[in-house]
Amino acid sequence: MSDVPEVDVPDAADGAATATTEAPRLETGWEPDTPPDDTLMRQFVTGYAQWMEAVARASGGPVLRTDDFVAVDDHAAHPLLNHIIGLRPVPADRADDVAARLFGFFTGAGGAFSMFSPWPIALPGLEVEGYPPLMLRPPGGDRPASPAGLEITVADSREELGDYERVLVDGFPLDAMQPFRAGSVFHPANLHVPGTQFFVGRAEGQPVTVATSIVGCGVNHVEFVATLPDARGRGYGEAVTWAATMAAPEIPAVLVASDMGRPVYERMGYVALTRWTFLIGSR
């Protein structure tokens, strides 16, 4: 028997330890500790959520952040101002819990609330209203000249921010915010939120078109584009969108479009990446 080689055999305890060793986590890109720059989509979502929080805190509004979403409540009549951005996919077995937390947050006075989810989602009590395209324009390029007679400036006073609000309410339109009242859409503190610029286009001295640039997490988030009905068809809306898009030409510009507005953005060099889910809930 001396010719038989000896073989080391692990004892039972060693075998149990090997069998129970946890497999390494497979990164989905949406864990709470995933770096913000993991993907361009995550940069945009992270910046979007941070901006929502900054705006709410500047104006003293309530904020709820969980691993699943960030929610802010202006207690406004229009659902776009009582808003949620999803932070990670919600599986069906947690949908009831997520919905319960949202309805527990949106209480008291105010209109309905809205949610953008970067993924398909079904939450009890919230109705899917559409699947808007998420669009990206790569850095660089040149901004074309604005149409003759249009002057575009950045709002830097309460009065100019009020001009912006009026165009947004009348041109978007935000019918639930009528009759218009300055400060009902954007608290004056918004003027001082880092990275945010409110562009106002004027024709014959009157505000007719608007757009916002929100720079954060390496992405330029273009938002709140609107033109008054009697000023459309003259290139004003595209011009003010160019102003917001080129506010930070060294980084990508990203926006959530409508199907109606998509051709304009495509003409500017934006490409559709995916479609988000837009939902509405009632208090």
Describe the overall structure.
This protein has 283 residues and is of the alpha+beta class. The protein folds into 2 domains: 36-132, no CATH class; 137-275, Aminopeptidase, CATH 3.40.630.30. The protein contains 6 helices and 13 strands. It has helices spanning 12-19, 40-59, 95-105, 158-171, 236-245, 262-267, and strands spanning 63-65, 69-73, 82-86, 113-117, 126-130, 133-137, 150-154, 196-203, 206-216, 219-227, 253-256, 271-275, 277-281. The strands form 2 sheets. A 7-stranded mixed sheet has the order 7-8-9-10-11-6-12, with helices on both faces. The protein is globular and about 70 Å long.
Name of the CATH first level of the largest domain: Alpha Beta
Termini gap: 82 Å
Please trace the helix and strand order, writing H or E for each element.
Answer: HHEEEHEEEEHEEEHEHEE
Fill in the CATH topology of the largest domain: Aminopeptidase
Largest pleated sheet:
7 strands, mixed
What strand line-up does the widest sheet have? 7-8-9-10-11-6-12
The 3D shape can be described as: globular
Q: What amount of the residues lies in strands? A: 25-35%
Q: Name the CATH superfamily assignment of the largest domain.
A: Gcn5-related N-acetyltransferase (GNAT)
Helix content: 10-25%
How many H/I helices?
6
The domain tally reads 2
Nearest-integer average pLDDT? 93
**Per CATH, which architecture of the largest domain?**
3-Layer(aba) Sandwich
Low-confidence runs:
none
**Overall SS class:** alpha+beta
Strand tally, please? 13
Task: Give a short overview.
The protein is of the alpha+beta class.
